[in-house]
Amino acid sequence: NAGVTQTPKFQVLKTGQSMTLQCAQDMNHNSMYWYRQDPGMGLRLIYYSASEGTTDKGEVPNGYNVSRLNKREFSLRLESAAPSQTSVYFCASRPVGRGQGPHGTEAFFGQGTRLTVV
Amino acid sequence: LAKTTQPISMDSYEGQEVNITCSHNNIATNDYITWYQQFPSQGPRFIIQGYKTKVTNEVASLFIPADRKSSTLSLPRVSLSDTAVYYCLVGDPILTGGGNKLTFGTGTQLKVEL
Q1: Contact pairs from chain A to chain B, CB under 8 Å
Q2: Are B12 and B109 in contact (CB under 8 A)?
Q3: Taking a contact as any Cβ pair under 8 Å apart, which residues of chain A between 68 and 97 contact chain B?
Q4: Beta strands of chain B (E only): which ranges?
Q5: What integer pLDDT is reported at residue A1 of this predicted model?
Q6: Given a cut of 90, is residue B35 above it in pLDDT?
């Protein structure tokens, strides 16, 4: 089991460029999440997908779009990158309800994508 | 989701017990309390979850009083490797749909020194 895999791990963009951050999980989880973490700050929820086919805004959705391509994959797109979007991006997944894993409802995180917009 | 309040930072020394308290006055009947740990440059990882009284695992203990308006994460005999940010989350773990939102606060930065 790979868990939650994010690609790329590092990326440098120029202002105005677009890119898609990829996230895939192999744990058959229903829910997936995208967060950003600025230096010295906590995680802020950008978007989440409670189940395949649904997406909802989180705390800081402006400037981002998401796609829940299937149950495994949840991508985050920056249409026109801005320096304020320089951050570390984390993807996470967790099961809905009880069951999967020893703790039942814990969230599993990827290793992050470090994005710099210049 | 219930709002949580926890200290921004704490300092300790190796071998000491560390207790981090989280306040959640508006906790709902179906809500559980969950703690995550985050090391620098890594995503958070689950530590412990509980509903009431006391829960203990190989990493930590979680104490929840009868009124459930607060909880305390206890780390026994910390070491330098326990230096991390600790997040307290409160929510119903089996909610579906829009209720499945998972938000983290700013957490508590624990620094352990020799």
Answers
A1: 79
A2: no
A3: 88, 90, 92, 94, 96-97
A4: 9-13, 18-23, 32-38, 45-50, 53-56, 61-64, 70-75, 84-91, 108-113
A5: 62
A6: yes
